[in-house]
Structure formats: C-alpha cells, structure tokens
Amino acid sequence: MEWSIQQIARAAGTTSRALRHYGDEGLLPATRIGSNGYRYYDESALVRLQRILLLRELGLSLPRIRDVLENEADEKRALKAHLGWLEQERDRIGRQIAAVETTIQAREKGEELMADKMFDGFDHTQYRDEVESRWGADAYAAGDRWWRGMSAEDKAAWQERIARLGRDWASAAEAGIDSSSAEAQALARRHVEWLTGVPGTPAAHGGDVKGYVIGLGDMYVADDRFAANYGGTAGATFVRDALRIYAEANL
Fold it and tell me: What is the DSSP string of 162-227?
C-alpha cells in the first residue's frame, strides 16, 4: 500500500511543498518516484512522517529531528515515548477544559465561583502535600512565595525554561546517547542549575544537594507521573543515570 504526495499532504494537514522539503532535508525520502515524477510513500514513511510532525510540535529543529530519527532505530520504542508525551499533555489540557467549563456554567447560572475548581491544570500547587511531606511546610511556603512574587513574563520565561529542558532530555533519550556523554552531562548541569534556583528546595539552601539530586532521579523512575515528563520509564532512567553521574562527579 502506498500513497501519493498529495494524498499524504491532505491526510496530515500539511502541504506537498512541506513534504518535499522534508525529503530534501533527508527526513522523509519518498519510497519511490513514479514515471510522472510524483513521489509516493509506503506505511513506513507514514509512520516516519507522524514522528516528524510530533517532534516539530515539541519545538525541535529539522536538523535535530534528523539526528533523532537517525539515532533511534527502534520505531516502537520511539512511538511509545511520543505517546507518553501526548498523554501527559492530554491530561493537562483536559483538566483545563473542565475548569473553564465549570467557570462558564457557574457564570451562566449566577453561581458563586469556586477558586479551587477554576484553576485545575493551570497552577503549580498540585504537589503541595507531597512537597510538604518530603521537605516540610517551610519548603513549600518559600517556593510558593517566590512563584507568586514573579511577574507574568518571568513565570512564562521560567516555564519555557523547564519545558525546553524537558524536551532536550526527551530528545537525548530518544537519540540513544550515553548518560555519561558530554551532551547528557551538560543537560544534567542545566537540571541542577534549575533545581538550585527554586527557593525552598534542599538544593537551594546548600544542604545535601548531591543526595537531593540523586533522590529526585530515583523518584523520576519510580513515579509514573514524573517518568511521563521524560517519555516514560526508559527516558526517566536515562535522566536518573545522567544526574547520578553528574552528582557523583561534581556535587
């Protein structure tokens, strides 16, 4: 079974020009070129295009996507990582949709708005109980004051920093690089810099930063909620190993 470039463009919501560009960049070679000069694609090419479009949504450049595709030959593993990212995003958006629907219904009926229901999926407090149980109420309070004191622009920049770090971790894991490599250790350094920049955490107060970082890495693997941030257990294991190597050598 194969499809013409026009059929694929319509199905994927893109253009023939974009598909030809992907081919020229070495991302999506046509399965065959017809006698009429048209490009045709088989099922494997369709799966490859799906991966390209998903990676584009994660903000990766075309050269970086090419690297990821070339270094991750296990198609099934890669698709499972993509699925983990999408499921996490679906959960977050679903909670936001439900919160907005609740607000609309309350306004239409003239009912009192419930703040605890309006911001589900928007705020940073979902792990409050967990933070307080692990590191104490003071740790959560310090971090909460810091966050609420930031401007909207600063919050957006901080969230983008975290999102970019997460994307870079996931891309590196998918590319199959070694956790001790220079690239992985550069990510680990950025991760530790992020952790030490959050008031209230043990890493921000000059405590046992090494133990804190290693412990968090273990938690990323053990807790599915956190593993999902890195594409699942395999990605979280890569992050854990890279953080442990960095912590042992530098903290």
Answer: HHHHHHHHHHHHHHT--TTSHHHHHHHHHHHHHHHTSTTSGGGGTSSHHHHHHHHHHHHHH-HHHH
Query: Which has the closest alpha carbon to 227: 158, 188, 169, 143?
Result: 169
- How many Cα atoms within 13 Å fall on the side-chain side of residue 96? 9
Which residues fall within 8 angstroms of residue 242, CB to CB, at 6 or more apart? 179, 180, 184, 185, 187, 188
DSSP letters, 93-159, are HHHHHHHHHHHHHHHHHTPPP-HHHHTTTTSS-TTHHHHHHHH-HHHHHHHHHHHHTS-HHHHHHHH
Burial class (CB in 10 A: 0-12, 13-18, 19+), 35: exposed
CB 198 within 8 A of CB 221: no
pTM as predicted: 0.48
| C-alpha to C-alpha distance for 11 and 232, rounded to whole angstroms | 28
- Give 26-74 pLDDT, tens digit per residue: 899 999 998 888 899 998 899 889 888 877 776 667 777 887 777 766 6
Q: Which of 185, 171, 193 is nearest to 245 (CA)?
A: 185
* Torsion angle (degrees, nearest 10) of CA 153, 156, 157, 161: 170
How does pLDDT run across 132-168, given as a tens digit for each residue? 555 556 656 666 676 667 676 676 677 677 778 888 8
Sign, CA dihedral 103-105-110-116, equals negative
